[in-house]
């Protein structure tokens, strides 16, 4: 009973504790898109991705050619020769799938490289967000770009994205 009373008292006083707190939000996607380093990173990732996609397409075309050659020579091959060629094709398909997973999979090289390139920029942005929050006395700052925030309405008065851009020295560059 005593615990319930304490909990009820705490819940009643909680709104009063928040009354003096400033709350705001930033849009990190907007900030990233305004940053010139992000455009460079996007370009680098696009060219790297294109290169890896070409390799994957090359593997796929080699597999297709192997299937076409097998189909063309099928009548001339013994069952054993046919099975050997089919095994080679299946092996090539497994290698192509392994390549795609290694490069574009959940923890693939593409996403690792993207994280590696974005990490310094994200650190710079979050340091700027920290300085803006402290300078403006903000207790809680949401990120409009992150999906689980459940922000269904935002008042532009509380958007501190421009302050963060200013802190990064990007206020009038773009």
From TrEMBL:
Keywords: Coiled coil, Signal. Residues 1-19 form the signal peptide. It holds the Pfam family OmpH. It comes from the Bacteria. Residues 49-76 form a coiled coil. Belongs to the Skp family. PANTHER family: CHAPERONE PROTEIN SKP. This is OmpH family outer membrane protein.
